[in-house]
Amino acid sequence: MKKLFHLVILFAMLASCGNEKPKEEKADDGYGDYETPETPKKVDEGRGLGEVKEVTLKTPLEQDRIGRGLAIYEMKCQACHKLNDQRVVGPGWKDITTRRKPEWIMNMITNVDVMLDKDPEAQKLLELCLMRMPNQNVSVGDARDILEFMRQNDGEK
Amino acid sequence: MKTVHKILWGIAGIITAFSIYSCKPSGPKEAITGDAASRAYVAPGKYDEFYNIVSGGFNGQIGVYGLPSGRLLKIIPVFSTFTENGYGYSEESKPMLNTANGFVPWDDLHHISLSTTNGEHDGRWAFANGNNTPRVARVDLKTFKTVEILEIPNSGGNHSSPYITENTEYVVASTRFSVPIGNNLDVPISSFKENFKGTVSFIKVDTSGHMNIAFQLITPGVSFDLARAGKGPSHGWFFFSTYNTEQAYTLLEVNASQKDKDFIMAVNWKKAEEYIKAGKGKSVKTKYAHNTLDESTHLSSSKILEEVLQLDPAELKDILYFIPCPKSPHGCDVDPSGEYIVASGKLAATIPVFSFTKLMDAISKKDFEGDFAGIPVVKYESALYGEVPKPGLGPLHTEFDEKGNAYTSMFVSSEIVKWNVKDLKVLDRVPTYYSIGHLSVPGGPTRKPHGKYVVAYNKITKDRYLPTGPELTQSAQLYDISGDKMKLILDFPTNGEPHYAESIPAEMLMPKSQKIYKLEDNKHPYAALGEGKTKVERKGNEVHVYMTAIRSHLTPDNIEGIKQGDDVYFHVTNLEQDWDVPHGFAIKGANNAEILIMPGETQTLKWKADRIGVFPFYCTDFCSALHQEMQGYARVSAPGSNVPTKYSTGKIEDQTTGADQ
After folding, report:
1. Which of the four pLDDT bands, split at 50, 70 and 90, describes residue B348?
2. Quick one: DSSP state of residue B234?
């Protein structure tokens, strides 16, 4: 009996010790925000999610933008997007500027990962094409040039 | 019964004592709490604290591991070809392995030096030595790619390399095997003393990292083993360990272990620079390759250089001094203050620690015991700070922490010994499993060690892992050195044989790690920057395919008009601009390898069309849901056939004639 008593004391001691959880080391890795795109809170009607909130379009078209936009299209977009209405990997670009708001187009180009995760329209396209549109590392300025080229492709002057 | 009772009480007392101990948050007896696993544990999705850049020895590569987890992050091919990504097989990378002996696809990579500024890690480059066909390589720590390889002429066995000065002014390369040099090459081996020379090359590194041999010192024929630059007060000097001062040329095991003392060689490189400035260097004809990677064209190129400047310290005084050092010294390590030089005699019973101040004093007073082949030999006692008594058996290498302690690896007694640099007292020792070679403390060779861990790189693994036949894994062991006592917390396997390694805090490399190659900056002459730029061109019997890859198709994916006997070059540009989307390219029957193409990069695979048929090619790196569809065909026709050169993607043709529909 006495023995048991000793053991009980012993266990109590061990237990009290065991309960004291070792302090969880908060790893201050400092990389939490490494390459995690910022997620905007609210889905904007038809404008998509991202940095581009308001785009001003001019008429007539800005010619210098069109040239630059075409060059970027040929390098980074043409492999998947045709200029007619034919879908290859992604949808053809014909009439895209009448289907989508300019902000949506530019956000889709510059913030594609967030768009594919959060924007209902972008998600529909993903279901259709079964291919995540790649982030082609296009700046907002370059996306604006591409937009101007799209307007020209859609027959605007 | 009573005795049993007493024993029980005794046990209870002991357990209580331990449990009280274990309640303390930290302390020397932590081993008992068994929290080693948590200290080496890096949770899924979390990053390691350090990059551990580890030599791969006979695999000719560098392994990049995370610490404290020991997870393998990357293999960087340096001196060896690598079928996995096409290094040494792609047209772009073949010139990297060129030498005066032609293409040399293998080497023995022993040591790593991470670049420093003011003696502290700066995270720009890692240097590595090729021991067999003497070479020094530079790896860019933005891309983790080998960007430069410089061959070392007049050298045999580049072992004592690639150690660097504190601002990365120079990388050194010195000969493990003395050899006959110059014009007198065909000599009897037995004429070693007369005809064999050692050389110490000082490779200048410019601000962009480019290397060129500034000068070579000609030394008596001995073996150079390892080296470290002075730092702080000793900046301007370089220290090398030597063995075989017996100048034996056979059965070195016995014949190079005769003398009680070999030498530490001290080099006053600032003095050498003065001689070079004064025009005392002798330009000597020789041949060696200098290979560089141009990051904008993605092409490496090789140049054969034909001249090197040499200095003869036997004639030009005050460059070289020898310090006697017990029994075949191996490691030669300078502490963070730059004052103490620790030389580990592999066969010695003590570790001598030399004082830079005393050495300078002895040199200025000409306190010499004589000379060796015309080079003054400083008296042992005049340069000696003190000896670490009875440290263990077979001391090899020493690294330092930020608290004034040294850690020496003991090969024969399989242990790490911690001792205090100032009072030379042994503080702690831990066993290693087994036969430790090099060891590494993060920042250990710099003026500002990061401390925290020491890693043992072992020569024998024996029973530590599941057996895999006669050839077992190589391995490293991680010890926590944050407390007074060293504590083993992890065993991890390594790729190849790990020799020396360095570790650098993750935050020094992570933010600048390159994610993609920008298409806009791609100046590769065969790049197709956009699908509209793809084409197939014939130049004689060479066929150049300008191909693009993007999820999930290759363009062109139907190629015809190749003739049997043609050399076909597939120049594949990866049009992706997103991180971690490489594409691969392989074609049936290729006698070389595949290529992996990073986003925005262009790489070329050469393929000999040696037989008639239709040959599939495809993307080898799973890239998307439709990766399996990322494929194409190349048709090879008889040499005299009139099949025209034709290429397309997505074009449907008439089934029999091949005419457009």
Report:
1. confident
2. G
